[in-house]
What does this fold into?
Amino acid sequence: MYEPASPGWLLVALCAATGAYCLLRMRSPVEEQRHTAGAEALMGFGMAAMAVPAAVVAPPRWAWLAYVTVFGAAALRGLWTARSSPHQLHHLMGAVAMVYMAAVMTFAPAHHAHSHGGAGVPLLTGALLLYFAGYVLRSGVRLLPLPATGGGGAGPGAGGPRRGSGADAWGARRAVRWGDRPELSQACRLSMGIAMLAMLVTL
It folds into this structure.
């Protein structure tokens, strides 16, 4: 599961930055967004810790068991919430992937785990790779800018600001906080999907 030091640290930085942004999203006034951001923050920081190059820190076996416990509980919660929210299915898949990688590292021989990763089940690894590859492609497509539609602003007064609307517009811009911008949230999910792919490839 470990790359050479430089790519490994880049992966750590990417996952940690994503987790930190998800913490900001937890300040959202929308309860569902707070729960989603909390799950994604846990995933981001967990992936960052797991991606630390083995040449710098060689985790003991109990650390991998802790990963299995924490993300096993997250997977059970995701399984429960996925019944009412299909979006939670992706969180469930992410937690399952973390449990799988941590379990592989737990039961791998010490010299193998500290050098090139564990020896995972090829079929399960391949299934997870296919899922996250599809998720990354889908997320990337959703981030593409949509073509401008004609006629949307052709009505009278549609283009210029109206009298007395400056305060309302300023308030609306304030309401769109960094933590509530859907394109940034989608970019974070895309980043974590790419990071998960990189970790699964080296398993």
Notes: Residues 111-116, 150-176 have pLDDT under 50 and may be disordered. Helices lie at 5-25, 31-50, 61-81, 88-107, 110-113, 122-142, 166-175, 182-201. The longest helix spans residues 5-25.
